[in-house]
Amino acid sequence: MPDLLLELFSEEIPARMQRKAAEDLKKLVTDALVERGLVYEGAKAYVTPRRLALQVVGLPARQPDVREEKKGPRVGAPEAAVQGFLKSAGLASLDEAKIVSDPKKGEFYVAVIERPGRNTPEVIAEIMPDVIRNFPWPKSMRWGKASAESGSLRWVRPLHSILCTFGAETEMPDVVRFQVGGIVSSDVTFGHRFMAPGLILVRRYADYVASLEQAKVVLDLDRRKDIILNEARNLAFAQGLELVEDEALLEEVAGLVEWPVVLMGSFDEAFLSVPPEVIRATIRANQKCFVLRDAKTGKLANRFILVANVEAKDGGAAIVAGNGRVVRARLSDAKFFWETDKRIKLEERLPKLDSIVFHEKLGTQGERVARLVALARELAPIVGADPAKAERAARLAKADLVSEMVGEFPELQGLMGRYYAAEQGEDPAVAAAIEEHYKPQGPSDRVPDAPVSIAVALADKLDTLVGFWSIDEKPTGSKDPYALRRAALGIIRLVLENGVRLRLLQFLDDLVVVGKLTSTYELPAGTPKVSTLQDLLAFFADRLKVYLRDKGARHDLIDAVFALEGQDDLVLIVRRVEALGRFLDTEDGRNLLAGYKRAANILRIEEKKDGRTYDGAPDLTLIAKAGQIEEKGLAVALDAARRDASAAVAREDFEGAMRALAALRPAVDAFFDKVTVNAEDAALRENRLKLLNAIREATREVADFSRIEG
To answer: What does DSSP assign to residue 627?
Structure first.
């Protein structure tokens, strides 16, 4: 079966856009082909700095013929309906339609539409201009004389040529002819900009890849990454060093070159007095180079790896020298920042925070620091931290934001604060907390485990959430400009992974006031405090579901536990969920859930019918008078189970609470087997409905079983 080869050749595509662009090209073209009845065997997209390419294999030579029956109006329908039918079906008159008889609906018109399939190149030529014109680049541009005209072609960078061929491997493929923005498709591409810029005639994919290789172009982005990584490791190994690997930088560098040439440069050892993270950030940000470390000591070496896009005649000496000059200049700046910053104590930097706005409705960074100090002091005894150290760390946590180094490299915030604090003789726990209070910043980031760090990290994230909730700035849909979901997940991980017993609602309630600023936060006038805090707790519940679902827990069990009043201790919530999950995996658990649902369904129906609820304890005298052993047995079992489950929950023994509920199973089964709930005697019926309600209330000692699926 024939294959399609497409290449869009342009000026340099930004590295950050390349992988997504290749995926978009593949999806847009293959979706359009399938929509037109052209199914294929496989497709793969490729990208280099100067080209997007796509290979689609196993396409049919032509579309399948289509025969479609379009149902029309009844015979004798109004003229307007008939004319609308003829127009939509493409018929000249009703003579071209057939009449079909239906025993129930009578006679109606049917148009038989037959469309012969077109040759696949025709379909591709129809698809491609639309794909190219509407390509979803994050940013695009117009160029040349045509740019003055409205509707002219836009592309990420000027588009120079389009290669498009179609044909079987054993035959000479045809050029698929179309044009976009004055660019006519052909079977021609070009090699490396400097080493082989000449024209290349292309037949099919295998020739295309081989010709590009000869013209110093590696088409596959992942292959370029492998070349860079392996050659960098080998160069480092030859010098007794190790590559400090960086996946994001590797992806970017592979998107900057078509023919990767890996070289090693060096810089003055004197620069190694600068913190290694600063050296790495400087070399990475300014020169897109990798750093190396000593294989034995793990310390940074005065070497770096760069990736060129050409094979230079001098073996790359001039390229290395040029990069070395820039690296040395940048490291000189970094060393200056480091030496300058060290002279100013973090404490002395604090007044500058008053001039930096954190958020127009939440004040300055200075005001935020005051809140963090208060919060950290409150949290310290809860997490087992020294209150004085927690307060000190919170006071200095944001001071490095006004340092020269963080101004140049914002990604080093916190880390530089730790270095400056250590240089200035701060307690090691305080210095560590200054760096770690930003953590965890993602699901794979490390969670601090030192008490002072936990206190300040919790304070930072709680301040963010309570602050933005107090001004009604919450995440919506996929938009979360203030990273509030990440902050909530950070709190969840800090609490759970360190076993912190924090009553969230109670703690938040102490922070927020309504109408006057007598505490840390102020809600706008007229904002209900309780609903705001409950809404924030519900947000935590949603994030906890995500966290636990990723660990294999069921979302309905989380709902069932959160539905109980006062559930704001995340550690206990997780323990309840885990115990409930284990219980429901047993036969007793499954049977009790089935019995609960049966009782709840009967209650729901009868309460709706009677327009009332059946709260309150059942009358034991009436049960004894009825004389049914199973009914009395259930009443006794419920009383014991609820008492035992409540006692177990009070001592945080959730497994024990589940065992107490499991003891209900025989009594519930016997009751439903032998007892008629809807007795003719109204008093007896009411009492038995109260007994069913008692089942519902007993299970609420551990969870709201109505939220459990299955």
So the answer is: T
Specify whether 452 is located in the same domain as 543.
yes
Q: Measuring CA to CA, which residue among 352, 353, 350 is closest to residue 364?
A: 353
User: Worst-scoring range by mean pLDDT, 136-150, 168-182, 554-568?
Assistant: 554-568
Structural domain boundaries enclosing 475: 346-552
The strand pairing partners of 56, in sequence order, are 4, 43
In this structure, the answer to whether residues 45 and 174 fall within a common structural domain is yes
Handedness of CA 31, 33, 38, 44 (dihedral sign): negative
Kindly report the average pLDDT of the chain as a whole number. 91
**Model confidence pLDDT, tens digit, residues 204-257:** 899 999 999 999 999 999 999 999 999 999 999 999 999 999 999 999 999 999
Number of domains in the chain: 5
Question: For the chain, what is the largest distance between any 2 Cα atoms, rounded to a whole number of angstroms?
Answer: 107
* Residue with token string 């239906």: 102
Check whether residue 350 and residue 317 sit in a common domain: no
Cα–Cα separations (whole angstroms), residue 149 to 139, 144, 153, 161, 445: 19, 10, 9, 20, 50
CB of 216 closer than 8 Å to CB of 258 = yes
The arithmetic mean of pLDDT across residues 379-389, rounded, is 96
Question: What CA–CA distance (Å, rounded) separates 187 from 408?
Answer: 48
Q: Identify whether the C-beta of residue 596 lies closer than 8 Å to the C-beta of residue 604.
A: no
Compute the distance between CA of residue 571 and CA of residue 382 in angstroms, rounded to an integer.
13
Q: Count of CB atoms within 10 A of residue 612's CB?
A: 11
Domain boundary among 173, 196, 215: 215
Cα–Cα dist 440/463, whole Å: 15
pLDDT band at residue 528 using 50, 70 and 90 as cut-offs: low
Amino acid at 577: V
d(CA 131, CA 106): 46
Rounded Cα–Cα distance for residues 475 and 469 (Å): 10
- Cα 24 from Cα 135, distance rounded (Å): 8
Q: CA–CA separation, 538 vs 39, rounded Å?
A: 46
pLDDT number for residue 316: 95
Most confident of 23-27, 165-169, 358-362, 539-543: 23-27
Burial class (CB in 10 A: 0-12, 13-18, 19+), 657: buried
User: What would you report as the CA-atom Rg of the chain, rounded to the nearest whole angstrom?
Assistant: 36
Distance CA 600, CA 472 (A): 38
Mean pLDDT score, 350-364: 92
End-to-end CA separation in angstroms for the chain: 49
In this structure, the answer to whether residues 406 and 501 fall within a common structural domain is yes
pLDDT at 515: 39
Which band of pLDDT confidence, cut at 50, 70 and 90, is reported for residue 126? very high
What are the CB-based long-range contacts (under 8 Å, 24+) for 353-360? 353/398, 353/399, 353/401, 353/402, 356/401, 356/402, 359/467, 359/468, 359/471
User: Angle formed by the axes of helices 221-238 and 247-254, to 10°?
Assistant: 120
Question: Which DSSP string corresponds to 538-597?
Answer: HHHHHHHHHHHHHTT--HHHHHHHHTSTT--BHHHHHHHHHHHHHHHTSHHHHHHHHHHH
Confidence category of residue 518, pLDDT binned at 50, 70, 90: very low
- Residue 32 CA to its chain's centroid (Å): 28
Interatomic CA distance for residues 294 and 300, integer angstroms = 6
Q: Are 6 and 132 in contact (CB under 8 A)?
A: no
